[in-house]
């Protein structure tokens, strides 16, 4: 698949339709959960049938939604006190336009392949923007939207909310409630329980809301993060074996993205060649079934199929 890049530009937030001036630079401190998550661009691919929305309409909606979701137009950096933060400086989102001299139906892969990497901007090297997206138009009039955002800035829920709001802004509809940013009072540790051994024993056995509260207590206390330091627990490797990670995207409203010509006909994660990292997404069939994207080595594929289809 030969993808011809036509243009690349920054789309900046448009406050009050581009009339109001941009607010002052702000800093959102990273939460403890932000600091230990994947430091990578998460990429997803949408496919829209013809007649696809115009680039001008999509860009105008993007400028409008960035004014409400400023973090997606900012950069990762530091606050004046030296803390890791999202800098709300309105740098903008990177928008790339591209074209393919072929029909989407002939090119669309049935599973994530390296070809998908051509449907969103190049993610190699040090990136300056939080959001990078690519609009790829096919000969048949179909449109592929390759969207990537930094996982440190937004998780799946925040990203899907942004995408739905982007579609609503493109259609001239209210975008809904603004996002809630992290602040110092959001995740506060409780007083040290010091019978610490018993508390740890009880909480490790219950990986639920109480478990995460316990994690906050330790990580944000002087004895935890400041003295010992925290290493990221979610470090992406090429191979997770013997472990497996299952990421459920079943409740994210990705199929609600509508630029004015209807919902996408297809949605899938991009190409993530990480063995053992599974993605569960709602099937494009719309019948309530689930599509599972399971990266495994070729020499393990047959054994994996036997495990999946075994009735024992």
Features:
312 residues, alpha+beta, Chloramphenicol Acetyltransferase, six-stranded mixed β-sheet, three-stranded antiparallel β-sheet, 8 helices, globular
Beta strands, count:
12
CATH architecture: 2-Layer Sandwich
Radius of gyration: 21 Å
Structurally, how many domains make up the residues? 1
What spatial order of strands do you see in the largest sheet? 1-6-7-8-3-10
The CATH homologous superfamily name equals: Chloramphenicol acetyltransferase-like domain
Q: Per CATH, what is the topology?
A: Chloramphenicol Acetyltransferase
Q: Average pLDDT value?
A: 86
CATH top level assignment = Alpha Beta
Oligomer: single chain
Instruction: Indicate the proportion of strand residues.
Output: 15-25%
Helix segment count?
A: 8
Low-confidence stretches: none
One letter per element, helices H and strands E, the order comes to EEHEHEEEHEEHHHHEEEEH
Bulk shape: globular
Q: What can be said about the biggest beta sheet?
A: 6 strands, mixed
Q: How much helix is in the residues? A: 10-25%
Q: Helices and strands: which structural class?
A: alpha+beta
Q: Whole-Å distance between the termini?
A: 42 Å
Account of the protein in words:
The chain is an alpha+beta fold and 312 residues long. The chain has one domain (4-182, 243-309): Chloramphenicol Acetyltransferase. 24% of the residues lie in helices and 23% in strands. It contains 8 helices and 12 strands. The protein has a 6-stranded mixed beta sheet with strand order 1-6-7-8-3-10. Helix 2 (55-68) packs across helix 4 (156-170). The mean pLDDT is 86. Keywords: Acyltransferase, Transferase. InterPro entries: CAT-like_dom_sf, Plant_Fungal_Acyltransferase. Pfam families: Transferase.
């Amino acid at each position: 698949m030969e993808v011809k890049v036509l243009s690349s530009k920054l789309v900046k937030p448009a406050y009050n339709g581009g009339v109001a001036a941009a607010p002052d630079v702000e800093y959102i401190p990273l939460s403890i959960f932000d600091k230990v998550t994947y430091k990578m661009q998460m990429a997803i691919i949408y496919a829209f049938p013809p007649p696809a929305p115009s680039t001008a309409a999509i860009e105008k909606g993007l400028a409008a939604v960035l004014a409400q979701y400023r973090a997606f137009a900012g950069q990762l950096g530091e606050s004046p006190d030296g803390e890791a933060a999202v800098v709300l400086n309105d740098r903008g989102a990177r928008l790339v336009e591209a074209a393919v001299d072929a029909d989407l139906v002939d090119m669309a892969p049935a599973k994530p392949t390296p070809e998908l990497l051509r449907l969103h901007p190049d993610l190699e090297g040090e990136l300056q923007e939080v959001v990078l997206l690519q609009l790829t138009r096919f000969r048949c009039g179909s449109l592929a939207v390759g969207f990537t955002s930094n996982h440190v800035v937004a998780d799946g829920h925040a990203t899907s909310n942004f995408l739905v709001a982007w579609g609503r802004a493109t259609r001239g509809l209210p975008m809904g409630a603004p996002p809630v940013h992290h602040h110092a009072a959001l995740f506060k540790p409780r007083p040290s329980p010091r019978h610490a051994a018993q508390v740890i024993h009880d909480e490790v056995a219950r990986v639920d809301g109480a478990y995460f509260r316990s994690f906050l207590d330790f990580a944000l206390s002087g004895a935890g993060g400041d003295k010992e330091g925290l290493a990221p627990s979610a470090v992406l490797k090429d191979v997770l074996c013997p472990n497996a990670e299952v990421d459920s995207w079943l409740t994210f409203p990705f199929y609600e993205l509508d630029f004015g010509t209807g919902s996408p006909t297809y949605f899938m994660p991009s190409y993530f060649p990480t063995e053992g990292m599974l993605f569960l997404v709602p099937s494009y069939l719309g019948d309530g079934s689930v599509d599972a994207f399971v990266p495994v080595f070729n020499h393990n594929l047959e054994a994996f199929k036997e495990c999946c289809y075994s009735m024992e």
